[in-house]
Amino acid sequence: MIKQAHAISEELIEWRRDFHMHPETGFDVHRTAGIVADELEKMGYRVKRGVGKTGVVAEIGEGGKLVAIRADMDALPIFELNETDYVSQNEGKMHACGHDSHTAMALGAAKILAKEKLNGRVRFLFQPCEETADEEGLSGAQRMYSEGAVEGVDYVIAQHVDPTIPVGTIAINEGPSGGGVDSWTATIYGKGGHGAHPHATIDPFVLLAHVIMGLNSIVSRRIDPFEPTVISIGAVNGGFTENVIPDKVEMKGTIRFTSLQTHKKAREEVTRIFDIVKTLGGDYKLDFLFGGMPILNDKFVSDSIANVGKDLLGEGSVVPLQKTLGAEDFPEFLRDAPGAMYMLGTKIEGRPVYELHHPKFDLDERALPVGTAVLAETALRFLKL
Known about the structure:
Blueprint: H1 2-7, H2 9-21, H3 30-43, E1 46-51, E2 55-61, E3 65-72, H4 99-114, E4 120-127, H5 140-146, E5 155-162, E6 170-171, E7 175-178, E8 180-189, E9 193-194, H6 204-221, E10 229-238, E11 244-245, E12 248-257, H7 260-279, E13 283-292, E14 295-297, H8 299-313, E15 318-319, E16 339-345, H9 367-383
Parallel strand pairs: 3-4, 3-5, 5-16, 6-15
Antiparallel strand pairs: 1-2, 2-4, 6-16, 7-14, 8-12, 8-13, 9-11, 10-12
């Protein structure tokens, strides 16, 4: 499998660089999805376009078990600062999270699997809008799931590049590996007035100060320390000049979690903290927007991917996953079938490590055949079960 993947290395690089040069964001991935669908049809796949607005679903094989491989296609609204031959040509947009390579490697795995005698079916899920959501708060995975993209699937796998670990390694674990996400917005209402007469006002900034202190005590005092949780404030806006106390202050923040029980508890505690505002004479409006489930890697699927990594790359090639509460919408595809996501080493030796979403993010393209081979071999082994 490694030999087959290396044999198409030039094509993998060509795909990846083309996608990198022409990044598209959100659901507006028409060019990328069109190329993907065209390539898959040439390979002999049964292709559905426009799934989840602009996603592509492609299947090959007959009967037996059904394995799904997911790849995200969207870029980020970032100005690229790299100086390469394949730098972004779309100003203000950049593949700073590696989705260009995810798409290229999935196409590579599709090409290899199209030539195999499959004991079952493989379905590819090329997804738009992983990085954000539409006007209804739904991401690409949520849209594709609702349209039946994973109906009948027995196993689901995905990979994500990791610029901190060397090429030729993968990282995988069972259980939680990524956080669920909630967004919250709030408005604190007080009573405005002249800055020289604060006693005649209900200062929303004073109310805000109590809320900030309270929010930052939730994780340390109200959440089980064995349940990873983060509650962060990302934006505070209020006031317009130095000598006027405003009527209100607006806030935005996020909650990250690894269990739905903790998610429920965190929401309750955030609401409880905002109730302080009423005690102090003000009022508030608080809204939550559920962003997605945590990534919970299935043990059997994780062990299977780890075994593939060891067999293809060597015993020391599989390393522990550095867990994070960063969020992904991949768990939407895990609602009805076991699955897992692993991290693929793409570190560029001799260059500073620029993390995901950095304007200088890039990857070592020698990793492309590695990821391609792991995807294809894992799918084949699941079909032989």
